[in-house]
């Protein structure tokens, strides 16, 4: 793929020092290019406090981290005329008075992140409350203390606040409940319980609340709440059981995996919010109890996450009544089986479904999944699925015969399919061919993924933009087959231990749209891989006069034959007819109808 002129300019700036004497030209850079150059130079260690002045007229978003960032850096950042977003993460050298250098940005600065800046204390909040233009503020992992929340709650435009892993008290939540503009609040990882959280019930503006990894056992009843995350709220060490479960509450505690598990009637508040229809998105991942009893009557719920919960198979039938669901996550719900999967067929609006890590699923459940015709994203990784109907495990059965259901062709809107660590092989990959034309992302992996599976995958057509392959049986033959996926933009290959650099160079040269290549977890430099091919092309152009017409045509035909090698049988037949028939005009006309113009030999 030929890089754009703008991309070449950005790359040239990053690789030289001449930008230090081009201040006037930097001022006229487009903001997105200036932002990218700024971040790249910082990551290379090419920026210091004084050089920040070069970007004060062009940068609108800046990301800085590490101990190199000190108070003098903020003094120069305070002079940026158009700075809208600033991320200062893990800048341990910053002190409370450092934030006073950012006050000149009031009026333009709307997003500020101080994540992990542990050198800041509650005194820094005096400066934050003067940045009245802030709409987003992250204080995650700081030690600012309770007075901070009381002061920043008065910011008139603040709509998103992240206080994760920060000290929060009842006075904090009481002050946040009075914030009129606050819509999104994250208290993830805070040492708070029901007493502090119940004070948020007075809020009329908070629509999204994250209580992940807190001691909450009863969520607040809030009429304005549409998103609630209670992930892992019932988890804690047995040494702190008295803090997790108040003595005055009516409850029962049982031990599971060394963690106390609460079983109480406190789900009444949550059930009330669900029945009112205001709560639309609910995250219950990691809860160590069955939450399905609270879901009765939750007809307005759009998104539900029950990943990792010990929900029994008998309770999963409750989900069939949540007909408004568009997203459902049942990852690692080990009780899910083929029979239970048929309860999901009533969820006709379901678009995102995650069943990864459910070992009880195999091909006998596929007809039930094919009935969900609105699906756009389907995750079936770490299951017993091979992609073939009627090929389930010996003891599996389904209430409806697989002959009564269509194949993968019924999922006409499916865009993303994940089949990592499954039993899928070449036959399963062939069965996926009805998805060609609309499937844009495909993940396949397992002990059966070999070269023939790659060849079957290559027939998915030009709609595929993201492909992930995981299989130790893939050789160079399988990689050659992937060259037919011309529109591929992202490729992740895992487990190909015997593939050298030459194989990667050959593959990258045939995928002009490729933007990202991950090889065994390592991001590959496409520029370095394409460099040898570019040099060969230049040598070929220089020697074109000496090659002669016949040799040039031979090269074109060889390249053409390589490209159609893994195309359907129709094109293979045409190739053979092209070799045997003298009337080539008719063959050429047919090829022009079947092939893109770039592949037609003149």
How far do the termini sit from each other? 22 Å
Helix proportion range: 25-40%
Low-pLDDT residue intervals, each spanning 5 or more residues: 235-265, 392-405, 544-550, 598-602
Number of strands: 21
Mean pLDDT: 79
CATH H-tier superfamily of one domain: Ribonuclease Inhibitor
Strand coverage percent = 5-15%
Largest sheet, described in full? Answer: 19 strands, mixed
Shape: flat
CATH class assignment of one domain: Alpha Beta
Which structural class best describes the helix and strand composition?
alpha/beta
CATH 2nd-level architecture of one domain: Alpha-Beta Horseshoe
Write down the Rg.
29 Å
The CATH topology annotation of one domain reads as Leucine-rich repeat, LRR (right-handed beta-alpha superhelix)
Number of helices: 21
Write the layout of secondary structure elements.
Layout: H1 5-14, H2 23-26, H3 31-43, E1 61-65, H4 71-77, E2 85-89, E3 111-113, H5 125-128, E4 136-138, H6 146-152, E5 160-162, H7 170-177, E6 184-186, H8 194-197, E7 208-210, E8 227-229, H9 241-244, E9 251-256, E10 259-264, H10 267-276, E11 281-283, E12 303-305, E13 327-329, H11 338-341, E14 352-354, H12 366-370, E15 377-379, E16 416-419, H13 426-431, E17 441-445, H14 451-458, E18 466-470, H15 476-481, E19 490-494, H16 501-509, E20 516-519, E21 522-523, H17 526-542, H18 544-547, H19 549-563, H20 569-580, H21 584-594
Helix pairs in contact: 1-3, 6-7, 16-17, 20-21
